[in-house]
Design goal:
The structure is a single chain. The relative contact order is 0.07. The chain has three domains: about 80 residues, no CATH class; about 180 residues, no CATH class; about 45 residues, no CATH class. It is built from four helices and 20 strands. It is elongated. The chain is mainly beta. About 10% of the residues lie in helices and about 50% in strands. It has a 16-stranded mixed sheet that branches. Strands 14-18 form a two-stranded antiparallel sheet. A two-stranded antiparallel sheet has the order 19-20.
């Protein structure tokens, strides 16, 4: 099947190229079908004119009972996902839209297990995003507007081409309203949690050509740093060997805009009351250890005043330790 510019799904003849998108016209039948089954099939999805690799779903099984073009009918679909993992979609659909089958009303529950984000075909590999996702949610559509809600758990998440899999899982509880005709939507709930740390994501998204364009806001107030440290390698941030961040909080209020593979992130990030434990600056400097020994005999003495700054400039120099107390006394008297 192929998705054309008209946003309608069209069947592709196996031996004929598709010169232009065609609508799938379905005409109501006067009789129902008691049972319809597809076993161990293969489904290939592609966008007309797209250079992206088609998505291939294997071991597709479809079970439909009391099928009718003019009324609702129950269905269940299971499949192996591109790149690994499996999906289970069940619920009711219909009546089928005769002009555009993609606009057929649906009430369904969705379960996805072990979806490989990097090879799924849903995410641009150049983004560096990877990991295994587990998803459970619901979708209710009247053919033009839809509501989605559920929870996603991502393990071994990677957020950067230079990142390494995180040791902690990310959980996302979400809700979204979708406009199927405009291929756009808004996030009504986006609670992102890592352990005890919780951030809130809101905003809008839209499909433009082959890209997903975001306009989101991430609010993360007083997040415990200890919970976030496990995510640093996933973002490609490497702390000095043997060191770790301890204590404190991180607060952020970020705008996230642009195509998924070229995001622009702006806004303040505040880190408070944390420390880098296990980091020995002296041992890392190595060859400069001798110089550090000399700097133990540093004295601070006031220098000339700069007219533009109207303050004393403190200069580091190497002196006899006896000069330290005299210099500090002189500095206090000139305040």
């Amino acid at each position: 099947m192929a998705h054309g510019i008209s946003r309608a799904w069209a069947e592709l003849p196996l031996a004929k190229p598709l010169s232009r998108p065609r609508r799938l016209h379905l005409y109501p039948k006067i009789f129902p079908i008691g049972k319809l089954e597809v076993n161990n099939g293969k489904l290939t999805l592609a966008s007309v004119g797209s250079k992206a690799k088609p998505q291939v779903f294997d071991k597709v099984n479809i079970d439909v009972t009391d099928f009718s073009f003019t009324s609702k009918f129950p269905f269940e679909l299971t499949a192996k996902l591109p790149g690994g993992g499996d999906a289970d979609l069940s619920g009711k659909a219909g009546p089928i839209n005769p002009q555009d089958a993609a606009k057929t009303p649906v009430e369904a529950s969705v379960k996805v297990n072990n979806m490989d984000l990097a090879t799924s075909g849903f995410i641009d590999p150049a983004s560096g995003i990877g990991g295994l996702a587990k998803f459970e949610g619901t979708l209710n559509s009247d053919g033009s507007q839809a509501k989605a809600a559920g929870q996603v758990t991502c393990e071994k998440i990677k957020l950067s081409p230079k990142g390494t899999p995180a040791s902690k899982a990310i959980n996302v509880k979400y809700g979204a309203n979708l406009d199927l005709s405009k291929q756009a939507g808004t996030i009504t709930q986006g609670d992102v949690s890592i352990g005890k740390a919780v951030a809130h994501l809101t905003g809008a998204f839209q499909t433009q050509g082959e890209s997903q364009v975001l306009n989101l806001r991430l609010n993360a107030p007083n997040i415990p740093v200890d919970e976030l440290e496990a995510m640093l390698p996933a973002a490609g941030i490497v702390l000095p060997s043997g060191s770790q961040l301890q204590g404190g909080t991180l607060s952020a209020d970020l705008g996230i805009t642009g195509p998924v593979d070229k995001l622009i992130i702006t806004g303040p990030v505040r880190l408070a009351n944390t420390q880098l434990a296990g980091f020995d600056l002296g041992s890392k400097l190595g060859a400069l250890s001798a110089s550090l020994e000399r700097l133990r005999r540093v004295a601070i003495r006031p220098f000339r005043k700069q007219a533009c700054a109207n303050r004393s400039i403190l200069v580091l120099d190497v002196f006899d330790p006896d000069l330290v107390s005299r210099s500090l006394k002189l500095a206090r008297t000139k305040r």
